[in-house]
Amino acid sequence: MSEEKKEEQTEKEETTTKSEEKPEENKIENKEELEKKFKQETFDKNSFCSSEIFNKSPTYQAPFPIRLTKEQLTVKYNPDYLKDFKIEDYYGVYCLNQEIVDRQSGVIKDLIVQLTKSIISRQHMTISLPIRIFEPRSMIERYTDWFAFAPDLLEKAAKCEDNIETFKYVILFSLSALFRSTEQLKPLNPHLGETYQCEWEDGSKFYIEHISHHPPITRLYITSGKNLFVVSGYIHMELGGILKAMLKNAMLMIPKSKITVFFPQKKQTVSFQLPKIHLGGAMWGQRYIYFYDHMKFEDVDNKLKAVIAFANWTKELKKKRIHDIYGKLFKYEYTEDELKKPFYCDNMPSYPFPSNNDDVICEITGSWLEDIKFNEEVVFSIKESTPPSLSPCDKPIPSDSRYREDKIWLKYSFDNKELGKVFEGYAQSWKLGLEAQQRYERDLRKKYEEKKEKEAKEREKEEKKKEKELKKKEKEEKKREKEKEKEKNKNKDKDKNEDKEKEKKDEDKKEEKKDEDKKEENENK
What we know:
The protein is of the alpha+beta class. Helix content is 41%, strand content 23%. It has a domain at 107-389: Porin (Beta Barrel). The strands form three sheets. The protein has a 16-stranded antiparallel β-sheet that branches. The longest helix is centred in the C-terminal third of the chain and has 105 residues, at 420-524.
């Protein structure tokens, strides 16, 4: 090698070394400049956390985030979504994304550390899950995934002349996006009163609100942009198997629900309930998911019913894949007693299909991860279908989940790898602050309820006192009336006696006169 080339190489190495040995201060300055782009100076007027709670403890304090843009909030569904998962036909759907898997690890250790700190410091014992296991969306936003195909499938349903075909499209709508539940990151727990407003490109709108925290109940409402359908209902998400989660590392999510689809032009109503969810690896190890039990569909006016079973829940599914489904659409006569009962059915009957095959309209088979079939004919391909994008509505009400600071910082941590850990720390601080806010609001509600209860008891006491006084007055009034009646009777008796005495006197006078007249008569004689 020539001397010139050696000198050039030496110069390059020195330059590289110098660039690698840049002062740490410059890196920090660059990070600080970058970080400033995501901060704002004061509370957002729609903040989920009050300044009173935020300033109460340094633990909660973190920078105020700049609001997310509409583009950042828009849910764009990835057509290759399932490529991040491994489908084990007889066990469930496993996550292959190592970054997500790593985020789920060490949760038990984190909880034990928090518990130990609470015991040592003798503070009020609170346990908070680490922010890293969450996705930057609230649970009420996650629910929108299950209804993602509403504009496409329900518009087709509304245009069917045959009520049976409309019913079939509602079945497809309910099954079309269940695969979205395989998402392994946990959604953020919604706050009481938290809302979310979003819309599809065709003008259809989705409104959803968390109306109860204990138990967790969410109400939803979807309107068609062309006035072709209305979807309404509730989801009461109940967690089952807490002991099982600890012993068998699995948890059950039971969405006690009733979703009703109404077609105003056809005057047809179809209601259905969602299936139960089995979440494996809840405490440790690799996480997996699958649906089990059943879904029920009812159209009372047109005497139609359908039941779909999941995960080996009927004899037809024995030895089938865990994501295969089996069901039947059939004619059904509803009794008055049935219609009086609550819609949601917790446990599927041992065999929910009609014994008479003449009532069966079609069989429903396939897989909630692949294709849906009616009488073995593929009518909807999940693999080849992508839901339309959902965008947040403009000018939402202040309770919209887009204003949650923990969610905003978490979203920034996902989108900015360089400052990911910093933003994740901010998200964790805001999460703790918002949880403190929830406890504060819960205490206020408790105090309000206690005040109401106390006032109700005082009112009841006052009413009883008034009632007692009223009874006493009535008793005294009756007594006075009785005495008056007695006095009146006494006066009557007195008058009667006086009359008798007068009559007697008159009689006596008459007798005396009579005697006198008789005496005079005798004297005259």
